[in-house]
Design brief:
320 residues, alpha/beta, 13 strands, globular
Length: 320
């Protein structure tokens, strides 16, 4: 386990609110820089004090040179102030709208969007970190992108052509429910190790150990039962959404571990009413309507403690 004294460093690209890489902070890694294009998501990262220096929170499109320059300047800062000679880990989770089977309305620019992975590859080539990690949807490696050479090819070929010489890497499609998460979530995880380290560390060793799948009772069985729209007075983060009236029947009779799609009565399965007729929703992906968040209790979504949030009204929270 890494400690603060070890000064192990990482960079996170396409980091959103910082949930995906929060485990690195929990393990004691130092975040040199985190990049996200939407300002309010970076604010959440600031609530969690992810970076040592305020300049480490980089808001902007990583495809723009100005954003890259801000990233590289942070590395120079850490080399001077933190005696860092080389970045240890680079994590990239590029947008997956064009890859996910959950997205049924792919836009015409999906190949350009998917090519944001190439921006990550460019940065890996320039920075030469000891390790890199790509995390994305199951179809990630087979998805077409526009490579550095301008040619369209599967992402797996782009990674091999640009990083294969310097890195030993493995790609696996894993389900997070088999690794301690409380919901079913299939993702591609690509782990690369610099070849000069490959004799000591195999990418295969860096995949987590398999754990028994958790049941919902194990995860939330001790929480207070809530009515629709209710927020626990003693735990602001424990709330039950107000489902539309027509959707409540979908979940009313479910047993533990069931999805709304498991209802035998068609009127109780997810559906739409079109021209007066029931049209069942298609279960495109097995995890739909069954997902739960896996976020540590120490993660802060707002710059207030749980005790402070519990004293506020809902309106006051959203105004904060």
């Amino acid at each position: 386990m890494a400690t603060k004294e070890s000064n192990i460093t990482y960079i996170s690209l396409f980091s959103s609110a910082g949930v995906g890489c929060f485990g690195f902070k929990m393990a004691g890694y130092d975040c040199i820089a985190t990049n996200e294009i939407i300002p309010r998501r970076l604010e959440v990262q600031k609530f969690n004090k992810k970076c040592k220096y305020d300049s480490g929170y980089i808001c902007g499109d990583i495809a723009n040179q100005e954003t890259k320059d801000a990233l590289f300047s942070q590395i120079d800062l850490w080399k001077k102030k933190g005696n860092v000679k080389r970045v240890d880990v680079l994590i990239a989770t590029p947008p997956c709208q064009g890859m996910s089977v959950a997205n049924h309305k792919k836009s015409e620019n999906e190949i350009v969007r998917n090519s944001l992975v190439i921006e990550s590859i460019k940065i890996i080539k320039e920075l030469n970190p000891k390790f890199f990690i790509f995390e994305n949807v199951p179809a990630f490696m087979k998805t077409t992108c526009t490579d550095i050479d301008g040619n369209e090819k599967p992402i797996c070929e782009a990674i091999e052509n640009n990083l294969g010489e310097k890195y030993s890497y493995i790609s696996r499609v894993i389900n997070f429910k088999n690794y301690g998460a409380c919901s079913s979530r299939q993702r591609t995880l690509v782990i690369g190790v610099a070849r000069e380290l490959a004799d000591e560390i195999s990418p295969l060793e860096l995949y987590p150990e398999i754990e028994a799948e958790k049941t919902r009772r194990q995860v939330i069985g001790d929480l207070k039962p809530l009515d629709f729209g209710e927020i626990d007075a003693n735990d602001f983060y424990h709330a039950f959404r107000t489902y539309p009236e027509h959707m409540r029947a979908w979940i009313h009779d479910l047993s533990e571990g069931q999805s709304a799609f498991d209802n035998k009565d068609i009127e109780k399965r997810p559906h739409q009413i079109i021209n007066g007729k029931i049209v069942a929703n298609t279960r495109k992906n097995a995890d739909k309507y069954t997902k739960m968040m896996t976020v540590p209790e120490s993660f802060k979504w707002i710059d207030k403690s749980l005790e402070e949030l519990n004293t506020l009204s809902e309106k006051e929270v959203f105004a904060a």
